[in-house]
Design brief:
Blueprint (H helix, E strand, L loop, with lengths): L1 H13 L1 H8 L3 H5 L1 H12 L1 H5 L4 E8 L4 E7 L1 H24 L5 H19 L3 H19 L6 H32 L4 H6 L5 H17 L8 H4 L5 H10 L3 H14 L5 H20 L5 H21 L3 H32 L10 H4 L1 H15 L5 H19 L7 H30 L16 H16 L4 H13 L18 H18 L1 H10 L6 H23 L4 H21 L14 H17 L5 H21 L3 H22 L13 H26 L10 H9 L4 H9 L1 H23 L36 H24 L7 H19 L1 H7 L4 H21 L9 E5 L5 E4 L2 E4 L3 E5 L1 H35 L13 H5 L6
Antiparallel strand pairs: 1-2, 3-6, 4-5
C-alpha cells in the first residue's frame, strides 16, 4: 500500500506540466486527490494502529547490505502521516485560488515533497529514511528558489540546502555507526534493543544534530526565516506543518530509547529553551507577517523538540499534542497571510489597518489560530501547553525519572514561562497588526476579496484548533500507544481544558498576563530592544564561514589546480607513491612471491609491452605514439588470452581498437609532431615519478597476490553462474545478472558521455551566411563499391579499402549479432557485439566519409542510445511487474523448425534453430544498442562533425554587398575604385 502510494505521488508530480496544460489552475484540485487518498488509507488503518499493532510493509532493496524498503507505521508515524497528507490536501486546494497561473514546477514539487515526507515518517530502514530525508531537503531547496531571477531566493535556498544537508551528513554518520554496532539498519530493532557504549552515544548525538538542523533549532535556526522567500502555500506546508517536523519526529522516535544517554537531555533542554526565547524575542521585532510567523515557528519548534526529547511519559504526551496543535494553528496563520497578501498586495503590518471590518471571516479564522498559538482557553493550544507545563512541573519535584536536579528544573520552567510570554505577545502583535485599526491610518483597501474556496482551507484548520480543545479524552486515548513506549516518568494527566486550580494553570495565567503586558507596552519594548548591543548573529557567523571557505578554496585551487593536466596527474601520482609506496617499504615481512608466469609466451608478450612503453618516450610523431600505446593494450589482451580469459581478451581487443580509431580521428586535427623544444628539467622528475609509480604498482600487486589467506571469492562461481544465471560465460553472467545494477549505471554513464562529446562538437555558434561545402570535386567514374564513393575526389579514394569494406561490413554485423546472442555461454555479449557493430560503422566512414556513414546508419544516435537505455531499464523492471524480482532471469529454450540441425560431411550439427536464451539477453540487447549508439555518436562527432567544421573554416564568409552604387568594373576588379 505505502510503496504504491509513494510511487503515485512521484508519478503525479512528474506529470505536473501535463496537468497544468490540461486543467489550468484546476490542476491543483486534480493532484490534491493523491494526498487525500493517502489520508483515507491511513484512516482506514486507525483500528490496528490505535490498538498498538501497527502496519508493516517490506520489499528487499539491497539484501547484501541488509537494506530493504521497509515501512512501519506505528502511532507516531500515523499521526505525522495524517498531518502530511491532510494538510497537503488542504494546501493544494488552497493553491487553486492563490496562484493566478498554474505553476507546473510548484505543483509537481509540492506533490513530490508530500510523497518524500510521507516516506520519511513511515520508513523503518534508516538508510531509506535518510534517502527520503535528503529528498525533502532537495525539494525544499527547489521551492525556496522558485524565482531564480531573484538573488534573495537563490541565497535563501542555498542557505537552507547547506545547513540541512550538513546536519544530514552528521546524521548519516550516526546511521552507519548504528548499522555497524547492531548489524541492522532497522529503526524499530534499534529502539527495541538500543546499543550502549561510547560509540552508541556518539551515534545518537550525531543523529540529534541532523534532527536539530532540520527543525531549525539554535544554532541552525537562521535558515528558516530566510526560507520565507518561497510562496506562502509552500511556507505553510513545508516550513510550518511538515518538513520542519521531520527533526521533531526523529527526536520523538528516538527519545524513548536514547533520552538517557549522556548529553542528550542537556543538549535538548538547553537548545530547546534558548531557541524558544530567541525566536520569540526576534518575532517581536518583525513587521512582515510571514517573518513574524517564521520566527514564531522557530520558537515553537524549540519548545516542541524540548518536550518530545525529554523522554518522560508526561513530556512525550504533551510534545505530541503540541506538535498537532502547532501544525494546525501555524498552517492556518500562514494561509491567512496568503489571503491578506492576495487581497491587499502587502504583508507589512505597519501598512495594514481595519481589515477586521473588511475581512471579518478571515479575522475570526486567524483569531482562533492566533489564540491557539498564544495558549488561550478553550483552544487546543491551551490544552497542549497546559500538559507541557504539567510535565515540566513534575521535573521540579523528583526529576520524574530523568535524574534532573530541582534547581535546573526550576530554571527550565522559568525559561518556558518567559518563552510563553513572548509567544502571547507576538501572537497579539500578529492579529492586531493584520486586522486591527491603527490610529490616524486609512483603512487598507481590499482589491481582491477572497472567495469562499480561498477561505475554505484556513477555515477548516482554524475550526480544528477550536474543536480539538474539547477532545482531550479521545486524544489522550489516541496518544496512549506512544506514551506506553516510554519507560521513564510518571503517568501523565489526561489532556483536558480543566484540571482544577494547579501550578500549571497559574503558570499559564502568568504567561498570558505577561504576554499581554508586553504587547500593551510594545513601543517601550521596541525601544528597549533597540538599546541592546549588537551581537553577532548565527546568520552572520554562517556568512563569514562561507566567505572564509570560498577564500580558502580559491587559494587552494590556485596552487593545486593550475590548469595543467600533467601537473594534476603528477600531484595525484606523487601522493600515491608516497603513501602506498612508503607503506610497502616499511612492511616488516614480505609475503612469498607468487608464480610470476605460467609459460614463456607470457614473458615474450611482457617484453614486447615493456619495449613499446619505453620507446614511447622517444616518439615524436603523434600517430606513431598512438599506435605505440596500442601495442600495450593489445599485449594486455594477449596476456588475458594466455591466462585463460578469452572473453576479457576479446573485449580488450575491441576496446583498444575503438580507442585507437577515436584517438586517430581526434589527432588528425593536431600538428603531426609533438613539440621539438629541448627537454625541460621537469621531464626528468616526471620520468622518476613514472618509474616510482611502476615499482609501487608492481610491488602492490605482488604483496596483494602473496597475502591471500582466505578462499578466493570466485570459487564455485562457475557453478552458480550456470545454475542461477543460466550461462556458462561467467563474465557475461556477472554483467547482466549478478551485478546488473552496476551495468545499468555504466550504460547510463555511456549515454551521458556520448551526449557530452556530441555537444562539444555540434553545440557551437555558427557564423551567419556560412554554408558547408565540399572542397573536392565529385567523382563521376564508374566502379564504385560504396554508395558515397562517387561523391569523393579520385585522390581521396582507396579501391582496396572500398572492396574490403563492402565484403566485411555485413560479416561484421552478423558477427556482432552472433556475439550478442551467444555471449551468455560463449565469449561475447552485448558490449562486445555493440563494439563490433560500431567498428563496422567506423569502417564505412573511413572508407567513404560522412555520407556513407549516413547511408549505413540513417538514424539519430540519440535515438539508439535512448532505445538501449529504455530496453535495459525495461528488462530490469519487467520481472517485477509479473511478481518476480527486479533483474530476475528466466531460462528460455526455442527450437526453430527446419533450422535445428544441418547435415555436413563430418556429421549432423546444431545450427541456429536450437536456441538457448535467457531473459537477461533482453538487457544485453539494451547494452548492445547503447554501445552501438555511443560509437555512432563518436564517429559522427569526431569524424563527420570535425569534417564539417573544417569545411566551414575553409569556406569564406560572403561579404554583404555595399548599398553604395559602385561601377561594375570596380567591383569586378576587387573594389579598385575605392
Amino acid at each position: 500500500m505505502l510503496l504504491g502510494l509513494l510511487a503515485l505521488h512521484f508519478l503525479v508530480g512528474a506529470m505536473a506540466s501535463l496537468w497544468s496544460r490540461w486543467f489550468g489552475r484546476n490542476a491543483f484540485l486534480v493532484v490534491a486527490i493523491v494526498p487525500l487518498i493517502g489520508f483515507c488509507l491511513l484512516l482506514a488503518e486507525a483500528g490496528p494502529i490505535l490498538d498498538g499493532a501497527g502496519y508493516v510493509e517490506s520489499v528487499d532493496w539491497i539484501p547484501a547490505l541488509g537494506v530493504s524498503l521497509t515501512f512501519r507505521v506505528g502511532l507516531l508515524q500515523w499521526l505525522l502521516g495524517l498531518l502530511v497528507t491532510g494538510i497537503g490536501f488542504i494546501v493544494l486546494v488552497y493553491c487553486r485560488w492563490y496562484f493566478a497561473k498554474p505553476p507546473a514546477r510548484t505543483l509537481g514539487l509540492l506533490v513530490a515533497f508530500a510523497g518524500a515526507m510521507l516516506g520519511l515518517v513511515a520508513a523503518d530502514d534508516l538508510v531509506v529514511l535518510y534517502v527520503f530525508w535528503e529528498l525533502t531537503t532537495v525539494f525544499s531547496y527547489l521551492m525556496i528558489g522558485h524565482d531564480s531571477s531573484r538573488r534573495a531566493n537563490r541565497a535563501a535556498a542555498t542557505t537552507a540546502l547547506i545547513v540541512t544537508t550538513t546536519g544530514g551528513l552528521a546524521m548519516l554518520v550516526g546511521i552507519v555507526t548504528f548499522g555497524v554496532l547492531t548489524g541492522s539498519y532497522s529503526l524499530s530493532a534499534l529502539l527495541a534493543a538500543p546499543p550502549t557504549g561510547l560509540a552508541a552515544t556518539a551515534a545518537a548525538l550525531l543523529m540529534l544534530v541532523g534532527a536539530l538542523s532540520k527543525s531549525a533549532l539554535a544554532p541552525f535556526h537562521f535558515w528558516l526565516p530566510g526560507a520565507m522567500a518561497a510562496p506562502t502555500p509552500v511556507s505553510a506546508y513545508l516550513h510550518a506543518a511538515t518538513m520542519v517536523k521531520a527533526g521533531v519526529y526523529l527526536v520523538a522516535a528516538m527519545a524513548p530509547a536514547f533520552a538517557a544517554v549522556p548529553l542528550w537531555r542537556p543538549v535538548i533542554t538547553l537548545l530547546g529553551a534558548l531557541t524558544m526565547i530567541l525566536g520569540g524575542w526576534r518575532a517581536l521585532r518583525q513587521d512582515d507577517l510571514k517573518l513574524l510567523l517564521a520566527y514564531g515557528t522557530v520558537s515553537q519548534l524549540g519548545f516542541i523538540t524540548l518536550m518530545v526529547g525529554l523522554g518522560t511519559k508526561a513530556a512525550g504526551q504533551a510534545g505530541l499534542a503540541m506538535l498537532l496543535a502547532h501544525a494546525l494553528f501555524k498552517a492556518t496563520l500562514f494561509l491567512s497571510v496568503g489571503v491578506i497578501d492576495h487581497a491587499t498586495g502587502t504583508r507589512d503590518l505597519t501598512k495594514l489597518s481595519g481589515l477586521a471590518g473588511r475581512l471579518p471571516a478571515l479575522a475570526v479564522i486567524a483569531g482562533l489560530a492566533a489564540a491557539s498559538m498564544a495558549g488561550l482557553p478553550p483552544l487546543f493550544g491551551f490544552v497542549s501547553k497546559e500538559s507541557a507545563l504539567d510535565a515540566l512541573v513534575k521535573l521540579t519535584h523528583s526529576g520524574d525519572g530523568t535524574g534532573m536536579l530541582p534547581a535546573p528544573a526550576v530554571l527550565l520552567v522559568a525559561a518556558i514561562v518567559v518563552g510563553s510570554m513572548l509567544t502571547v505577545a507576538y501572537s497579539l502583535r500578529f492579529w492586531w497588526g493584520a486586522f486591527g485599526t491603527r490610529r490616524r491610518a486609512e483603512p487598507t483597501p481590499v482589491e481582491h476579496p477572497p472567495t469562499p474556496g480561498f477561505l475554505a482551507g484556513p477555515a477548516l484548520l482554524g475550526l480544528a484548533c477550536l474543536v480539538m480543545g474539547f477532545l482531550g479524552h479521545p486524544l489522550t486515548e489516541t496518544l496512549a500507544p506512544y506514551v506506553a513506549t516510554i519507560r521513564e516518568g510518571s503517568a501523565p494527566h489526561e489532556l483536558a481544558l480543566w484540571h482544577g486550580f494547579s501550578t500549571p494553570l497559574a503558570l499559564s495565567a502568568l504567561a498570558i498576563a505577561g504576554g499581554a503586558v508586553l504587547f500593551w507596552l510594545r513601543d517601550g519594548v521596541a525601544r528597549v530592544q533597540g538599546t541592546f548591543p549588537h551581537m553577532p548573529a548565527a546568520n552572520d557567523f554562517y556568512r563569514t564561514t562561507m566567505r572564509l571557505l570560498d577564500a580558502v578554496a580559491v587559494e587552494v585551487t590556485a596552487r593545486v589546480q593550475r590548469g595543467s593536466l600533467a601537473s594534476s596527474i603528477g600531484t595525484i601520482l606523487t601522493v600515491f607513491v608516497v603513501l602506498v609506496g612508503g607503506t610497502l617499504v616499511v612492511l616488516p615481512v614480505w609475503p612469498v612471491v607468487p608464480v610470476l608466469y605460467d609459460n614463456l609466451a607470457q614473458v615474450g608478450v611482457a617484453v614486447v609491452v615493456c619495449v613499446a612503453a619505453i620507446s614511447l618516450v622517444t616518439v615524436r610523431g603523434r600517430i606513431r605514439a598512438i599506435l605505440t600505446v596500442g601495442v600495450t593494450g593489445y599485449g594486455t589482451a594477449l596476456l588475458f588470452l594466455f591466462h585463460g580469459a578469452p572473453d576479457l581478451a576479446l573485449t580488450q581487443v575491441l576496446i583498444e581498437t575503438a580507442a585507437l580509431l577515436v584517438f586517430l580521428m581526434v589527432m588528425r586535427t593536431l600538428p603531426k609532431y609533438f613539440t621539438d623544444r629541448p627537454l625541460h628539467s621537469s621531464r626528468w622528475w616526471r620520468m622518476i615519478l613514472a618509474v616510482g609509480v611502476g615499482l609501487t604498482v608492481t610491488a602492490s600487486i605482488l604483496v596483494s597476490a602473496g597475502s591471500r589467506t582466505a578462499e578466493p571469492a570466485s570459487t564455485g562461481l562457475e557453478r552458480a553462474a550456470y545454475e542461477f544465471g543460466y550461462g556458462k560465460n561467467i563474465v557475461n553472467v556477472i554483467l547482466v545478472d549478478t551485478r546488473a545494477w552496476d551495468t545499468l549505471g555504466e550504460i547510463s554513464v555511456l549515454v551521458i558521455a556520448a551526449t557530452g562529446v556530441a555537444s562539444l562538437i555540434f553545440l557551437r555558434s555558427r557564423v551567419p551566411g556560412r554554408r558547408p561545402t565540399r572542397a573536392s570535386a565529385p567523382n563521376q567514374s564508374a566502379g564504385a563499391w560504396l554508395r558515397a564513393s562517387r561523391s569523393l575526389h579520385p585522390a581521396a579514394r582507396s579501391l582496396i579499402f572500398e572492396v574490403v569494406t563492402r565484403l566485411l561490413f555485413g560479416v561484421m554485423i552478423l558477427v556482432s549479432v552472433y556475439l550478442l546472442i551467444a555471449g551468455h555461454n560463449l565469449p561475447g555479449g552485448g558490449f562486445a557485439g555493440g563494439l563490433v557493430a560500431g567498428l563496422a560503422l567506423v569502417v564505412r566512414y573511413l572508407a567513404a566519409g560522412a555520407k556513407e556513414l549516413d547511408d549505413a546508419a540513417p538514424i539519430d544516435a540519440g535515438r539508439v542510445l535512448g532505445a538501449g537505455l529504455f530496453i535495459g531499464a525495461g528488462a530490469a523492471m519487467l520481472p517485477w511487474a509479473f511478481g518476480g524480482r527486479i533483474f530476475q532471469s528466466f531460462d528460455i529454450h526455442l527450437t526453430l523448425p527446419g533450422l535445428d540441425a544441418v547435415a555436413t560431411p563430418w556429421g549432423t550439427v546444431n545450427a541456429f534453430g536450437d536456441l538457448h536464451l535467457v531473459s537477461s539477453t533482453v538487457f544485453d540487447i539494451g547494452v548492445y544498442l547503447v554501445v552501438l549508439g555511443m560509437m555512432l555518436d563518436l564517429v559522427r562527432s569526431l569524424g563527420s562533425g570535425i569534417d564539417q567544421q573544417a569545411e566551414e573554416e575553409r569556406t569564406p564568409v560572403p561579404r554583404p554587398e555595399s548599398t553604395t552604387a559602385v561601377p561594375a568594373t570596380a567591383r569586378h576588379h576587387g573594389g579598385g575604385a575605392r
